[in-house]
Amino acid sequence: MINDLDQILSASAKRMKRSVIRELLKMTQRPELISFAGGLPSPESFPVEQLKQVVVEVLDTDSARALQYSETEGDKRLREILVEKYRKEGLNININNLIISTASQQALDLIPKIFVNPGDKVICGLPSYLGGISAFATYGADLVGIELDDHGMRPDLLEQKMQELQRKGQKPKFIYVIPDFQNPTGICMPERRRLEIIEIARKYNVLIVEDSPYREVRFSGTPQRTMYELDSTGQVILLGTMSKIFVPGFRLGWIVAHEDVIDKLVMAKQNTDLCTSSFVQKIAAKYFDKGYFEPNLAKTNAMYKEKRDAMVEAFHRFMPKGVKWTEPEGGLFLFVTLPEYIDAEDLFKIAIEENVAFVPGTVFYCNGEGKNTLRINFSFMSKELNIEGSRRLANAIKRMIKE
Ligand code: PMP
Would the ipTM clear 0.90, i.e. be above it? Predict the structure, then answer.
């Protein structure tokens, strides 16, 4: 082993941090512990029997291509299926606007790879998805956080920040938003808010990265149009993934963008993995072609709705006064705000004694704020454990509440 590793590591390797959530998850493996920490889909949502059939069919009919290297852009049939799906929604795109990625996390790495130089500003929500923030930071992005309200990123603060940066001669590379059931808050941006953010992005000529893994994980209410559709000028890069609507283990996602951006992303992806698994893409395309996708998604959403309802009811029943939480119409998370004097990292230790775990919200704040917040996942545990875990969490909070 080289003994001066620190001397030879690159600046970007030195910027890399271990995911706090992944470290927390290691601590929460005890069987008696109810963990609301991960962002995991429920294994009950995995269409195992259908996949057995599809996998055999792909191997029987298309093994030479399914097991071979394939195009960096992705499997043509799968891209056509996704383009068709978006066109039905109203997006004016063709196959040249969409490439397959090795799930969204790869997209969150490729995007700063092609846009960010060390020291460049990137705007994100306060709070925002940790995996996004951390990927951007690895490329040396200087993250600028904008507070959210009940409808998502606040346009007044965004405008203010843009003006401030403009005065200093700085132009952010992009604005990172998760408009549909945001991770970690669960907030879904109404159309008006989306338009306000787009307007500001246009005014200052800044790209928007619309990361949307939870868009189709909706239990009630009306789907909002994507920012990509609302913009229609090529200013938005839209990310999608199969992780929450099919299976995360396939590591299958996609990027929708202007052709010129796609072109650069393809080059960046070539250096990373040449292509996303050909086999997995063929399986996914056949799964869609057989019409299995929609019914399974509807079943999954019905199950998640029950789990969310159970958790929200339990919160109403057990939580002490002074605790607030979001009640989203979709996604996988509730976001909890505690009285200001309670630090969720201290609560975490007490909660572990009560055999329940969550993610302290501060990890999602690029400025280190959010000490009194926490993220709760409701999709992974059973309905019964969601209720019992909420009771335990409320007990832990009560131990810290000053009357
Ligand atoms: N973006 C957001 C907002 C997420 O919540 C996640 C997963 N939790 C991802 C991207 C990455 O998802 P994947 O790589 O599985 O597509």
Answer: yes
Cα distance between residue 334 and residue 374, in whole Å: 9
Pairing of strands 236-241, 253-256: antiparallel
* Pocket-forming residues, ligand 1, beta carbon under 6 Å: 39, 103-105, 129, 131-132, 178, 183, 211, 213, 241, 243, 248, 253
Residues whose CB falls within 8 Å of the CB of residue 261, separated by 6 or more in sequence, listed in order: 114, 234, 237
Atom of ligand 1 nearest to the CA of 106: 14
Cα(105) to centroid(ligand 1), Å: 6
Domains along the chain with CATH numbers: 7-47+295-398 (3.90.1150.10), 49-289 (3.40.640.10)
From 325, 303, 319, select the one nearest 379 (Cα to Cα).
Answer: 303
| Top mutation candidate among 183, 335, 380 for ligand 1, by most atoms within 8 Å of CB | 183
Complete DSSP assignment for 294-336: HHHHHHHHHHHHHHHHHHHHHHHHHPPTT-EE---SBSSEEEE
User: Taking the model in full, what pTM does it have?
Assistant: 0.96
pLDDT tens digits for 332-377? 999 999 999 999 999 999 999 999 999 999 999 999 999 999 999 9
